[in-house]
Write a structure and sequence with these properties.
This protein has 165 residues and is mainly α. The protein is built from eight helices and no strands. Helix 2 runs antiparallel to helix 4 (69-83). The longest helix is centred in the first third of the chain and has 23 residues, at 2-24. It is elongated.
Length: 165
């Protein structure tokens, strides 16, 4: 009798296991779906951000990177989020995008990073990625308690010169 009950319980569980697995993936975008005008998959988005960050780290001209791959990524993430608003991987990629923009040593890079951070905090306020993004941006703008912002030297070079005596 016990064996029969165990066999029936196992059969019932096996019957509902695939449905339970699908429920766990309900809010995630599939890897083979493409988003935005340039048709980037979620893997393509992550790779584009990583490659752009690498190019910026190696001293590439930031303008083509910002106007090309990073603009394509931003468009794709907007489309991705419109279709899968609860996908937690969006917050991770927004943090990576913010980090890439912070590698652009211009006021536009800082502005774009702040825009992405605003987007991240607005749409994923309780995520650890939003908290990390806020800390990243605070460090970059010099508002962190540590005061070791990478932009301090750049900002001091752009400061107006004192009037001659």
């Amino acid at each position: 009798m016990r064996f029969r009950f165990a066999l029936i319980a196992t059969a019932v569980f096996a019957m509902f296991a695939p449905a339970a697995a699908q429920d766990g993936l309900a809010g995630l975008a599939p890897a083979d779906e493409y988003f935005g005008r340039f048709g980037l998959s979620v893997l393509g988005i992550a790779n584009s951000i990583r490659d752009a960050g690498f190019r910026l780290d190696t001293g590439a001209d930031p303008r083509p990177v910002v106007e090309g791959p990073l603009a394509f990524v931003s468009d794709a993430i907007h489309a991705w989020e419109a279709k899968y608003p609860a996908d937690p991987w969006i917050a991770k990629d927004l943090l990576a995008l913010e980090n890439a923009y912070l590698k652009v040593p211009t006021d536009d890079g800082l502005r774009l990073a702040a825009n992405v951070e605003g987007w991240l905090v607005a749409d994923f306020p309780g995520s650890s990625y939003a908290a990390r993004g806020r800390a990243q941006l605070a460090t970059a703008t010099g508002t962190s308690p540590a005061g070791n912002a990478p932009w301090e030297r750049y900002a001091s070079l752009r400061a107006p010169l004192p009037p001659p005596r």
